[in-house]
Amino acid sequence: MNMMPSELSRRSLASDKMNGRPSDGGRFLRINDVIATVGLSRATIYRLMDAGDFPKSKALTKRCVGWWEAEVSKWVAARLADAFDTG
Fold first, then answer.
1. pLDDT digits (tens, 9 = 90+) for 50-87
2. For residue 34, which of 85, 3, 76, 5 has the smallest C-alpha distance?
3. Residue 70, Cα to own-chain centre: how many angstroms?
4. How big is the CA angle at 49 (ends 47 and 55), to the nearest 5 degrees?
């Protein structure tokens, strides 16, 4: 059974998604993912966002927003660095 490269690519992307692995290009996180990642409440995340202290969400559809995972990870890393520098 010979598969075309595009078929292999689709299958590996599908299996990565099923296994919870992001694609090489990154992925958007929904609010519950962000809450689980940073350990802050929804209200605190939006308050920090309004103050310019947290990555802004991006509109994915009219009623759906997401945060780019790399931006959230960078924010977490900066917070960790600050904690170790001042601690």
1. 999 999 999 999 999 999 999 999 999 999 998 888 75
2. 76
3. 6
4. 150
CB 59, CB 65: distance < 8 Å: yes
pTM: 0.71
31-38 contacts at long range (C-beta below 8 A, 24 or more positions apart): 31/65, 34/67, 34/72, 37/72, 37/73, 37/76, 38/72, 38/75, 38/76
The answer to whether 38 and 77 are in contact (CB under 8 A) is no
What is the C-alpha to C-alpha distance for residues 9 and 38, in angstroms, rounded to an integer?
A: 32
DSSP one-letter code for 61: E
